[in-house]
Amino acid sequence: MAGPALIELVGLVRTYHVGGTEVKALGGINLTITEGEFVAIMGSSGSGKSTLMNTLGCLDRPDGGTYRLAGTEVAGLDRDALADLRNHTLGFVFQSFNLLSRTSARENVELPLLYAGVGSAERDQRARKALERVGLADRMDHHPNQLSGGQQQRVAIARALVNTPRMILADEPTGNLDTATSIEIMALFQALGREGMTIVLVTHEPDIAVYATRVLTMRDGLIVADRLQEPQQAVASTPPPVAAT
Ligand code: ADP
Ligand code: MG
After folding, report:
1. Do β-strands 198-202 and 72-73 pair in parallel, antiparallel, or remain unpaired?
2. Which protein residues are within 6 Å of ligand 1, measured from CB?
3. Which whole number is the average pLDDT over 141-155?
């Protein structure tokens, strides 16, 4: 899988200053991720996984090294250009779903489009398509509290997909889900991966990392292992139908 590099980190450093001492959350990371890879990032608590993800997501600025996202040097962009690159390149999925509770699934998925100034008819159409893609065609008007945890996470994935990103960044997306539901979510990520989506996912569970094509292990702000693997196929008990976009 030698597609173009979507992520290129060279010597990336992120230092936190806490009460007079320095913590190197990232101690000089070199990493290339190419289009279509499904990468799991593992490592114990405090090893730097979230700092790395925040950097990849352009939510945090490194204090050393370079980050090229989709061929563009992130440090050289002004705020608008950075927001633009993020919106067109990245979709985010979180452990806690981060859905608005008083709003339907469809309206939650429309939100990024609303921020982007997309008109209401197109918003509606694109949100419906994204929800169909994650197997929730029949739940569009449900509110989060009427959905199971797995369904809520699928709404969040639809929201991440609605801007047609090239890559999904997911920090512990199965951390709040039971095993069967976690496998369902991994089956969905694998289906998206087969369509060419690049996925970077943080997990501390080896049982989840088996579904990725590549596993990175972090320790003390460094990548200490990086291996390709034949992924196990996630078989969901109720497979969400993933249709092409
Ligand atoms: P992980 O996600 O693997 O648990 P983090 O990236 O959250 O690790 O943290 C890496 C290191 O950076 C830890 O030592 C943590 O205490 C430190 N750290 C993370 N965020 C901050 C912050 N905002 N201020 C100070 N130190 C931080
Ligand atoms: Mg973390």
Report:
1. unpaired
2. 16, 18, 23, 25, 43, 45-51
3. 96
Q: What local confidence, expressed as pLDDT, does residue 241 receive?
A: 54
Residue 115 — very low, low, confident or very high, per pLDDT cuts 50/70/90? confident
Distance CA(41)–CA(92), nearest Å, equals 15
Q: How far is the CA of 47 from the centre of ligand 1 (A)?
A: 8
Cα dihedral across residues 113, 119, 120, 123: positive or negative: negative
Chain mean pLDDT for the chain: 93
Share of the chain above pLDDT 90, in %: 90
Residue nearest to atom 17 of ligand 1 (CA): 25
- In the chain, the largest separation of any two C-alpha atoms, in whole Å, equals 55
Query: What residues are neighbours of ligand 2 (ion), with CB under 5 Å?
Result: 49-50
Which ligand 1 atom is at minimum distance from the Cα of 43? 3
Based on its alpha-carbon atoms, the radius of gyration of the chain, rounded to whole angstroms, reads 18
The pair of structure tokens assigned to 206 is 């080896």
Measured by CA distance, the residue closest to atom 16 of ligand 1 is 46
Contact assessment for residue 9 and residue 66, using Cβ atoms and an 8 Å cutoff = yes
163-174 per-position pLDDT tens digit: 999 999 999 999
Domain ranges of the chain: 98-164
Identify the pLDDT of residue 4. Answer: 82
Amino acid at 5: A
Decide if 142 contacts 156 (C-beta within 8 A). no
Q: How far is the CA of 218 from the centre of ligand 1 (A)?
A: 13
- Please identify, by atom number, the ligand 1 atom nearest to the C-alpha of residue 218: 3
Distance between CA atoms of 56 and 67, rounded to whole angstroms? 8
